């Protein structure tokens, strides 16, 4: 197996600017401030790399609520790269346009689609996306889809790192993907 047959999978988790309520956002859009990425070797059945890209928001600020949730501060993300450069990094360094990818639910995919459209930036991913949350729930025969932390507990896996840290969450989702792979229930990609 190689890139085209789906040996490697990019697991992506994003953190975005957020507020307790839309009213407190004051018209600011949610913008990606961290992209966490875990590379999973589906053939070797192991997580092979963990990456983090900090993204400088252009039209919103990091709220105290967001810092409490993600641990990210405005000063920290101000040192990040612009969104367009983050997308270019995904393509250049992580082959995101040709490699299959997964996220826990559809939030990450939809956030990228919306932000790319707003910013006039090329969408950095190909069409081979898997909703790992739905796939895990189906593989385990669950009537309700679990959040990532709940799924880790359900699978008997530890939560490694900090929840709502994109890089750590991508790493943990990678472990859940491998749980599904070991059960023979991960979808094949041509």
TrEMBL record:
One of its GO terms (molecular function) is nucleic acid binding. InterPro entries: 3-5_Exoribonuclease, ERI-1_3'hExo-like, Ribonucl_H, RNaseH-like_sf, RNaseH_sf. Pfam families: RNase_T. It comes from Actinomadura litoris. Residues 8-186 form the Exonuclease domain. This is DNA polymerase III. Keywords: Exonuclease, Hydrolase, Nuclease. SUPFAM superfamilies: Ribonuclease H-like (SSF53098). Transmembrane segments: none annotated.
């Amino acid at each position: 197996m190689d890139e085209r047959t789906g040996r490697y999978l990019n697991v992506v988790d994003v953190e975005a600017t957020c507020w307790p309520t839309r009213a407190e956002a004051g018209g600011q859009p949610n913008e990606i401030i961290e992209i966490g990425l875990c590379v999973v070797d589906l053939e070797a059945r192991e997580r092979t790399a963990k990456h983090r890209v900090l993204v400088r928001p252009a039209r919103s600020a990091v709220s105290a609520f967001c810092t409490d949730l993600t641990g990210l501060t405005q000063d920290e993300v101000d040192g990040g790269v612009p969104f367009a450069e983050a997308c270019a990094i995904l393509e250049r360094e992580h082959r995101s346009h040709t490699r299959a990818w997964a996220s826990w639910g559809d939030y990450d995919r939809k956030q990228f689609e919306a932000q790319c459209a707003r910013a006039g930036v090329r969408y950095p991913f190909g069409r081979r996306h898997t909703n790992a949350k739905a796939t895990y729930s189906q593989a385990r025969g669950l009537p309700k889809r679990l959040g990532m932390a709940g799924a880790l507990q359900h699978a008997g896996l530890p939560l490694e790192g900090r929840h709502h840290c994109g890089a750590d969450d991508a790493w943990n989702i990678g472990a859940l993907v491998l749980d599904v792979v070991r059960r023979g229930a991960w979808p094949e990609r041509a």
